[in-house]
Design a protein that fits this description.
The chain is mostly beta strands. It contains no helices and eight strands. The chain has a four-stranded antiparallel sheet, with no helix packed on it. A two-stranded antiparallel ribbon has the order 1-6. Strand 4 and strand 5 form a beta hairpin.
Length: 98
């Protein structure tokens, strides 16, 4: 009905613990395209079996991405160019705070 009050969720926050891959380690980096920071989806995988752990978008201005609350184990990141100009890239990562 027009004019009636309505309910909306404007902001929410959830804290969870990842029982399989959770911990204190962090993986972070910067995505660049020909040396210029850019926004691309970055996926974090375990190195031992390639299992997808998390994914995020890099910041469009700085190219920065970060995964926190990770278990101390080997990982690699994988990123694809959604515009299909550049080939996909992967990179072994170093944990901090483990």
């Amino acid at each position: 009905m027009s004019g009636d009050p309505y309910f909306a969720i404007v902001e929410t926050s959830v804290t969870t613990w990842d029982s399989a891959d959770g911990g204190n380690a962090t993986v972070s980096g910067i995505v660049t395209l020909n040396g210029v920071p850019g926004a691309r989806k970055v996926r974090l995988h375990t190195l031992n079996n390639g299992r997808l752990i998390r994914e995020t978008w890099s910041d469009p201005v700085t190219g920065a991405y970060q995964f926190t609350g990770l278990k101390d184990q080997p990982y690699y990141v994988w990123s694809e160019d959604y515009m299909r100009v550049y080939d996909p890239v992967s990179h072994l990562v170093t944990l901090t705070g483990a």
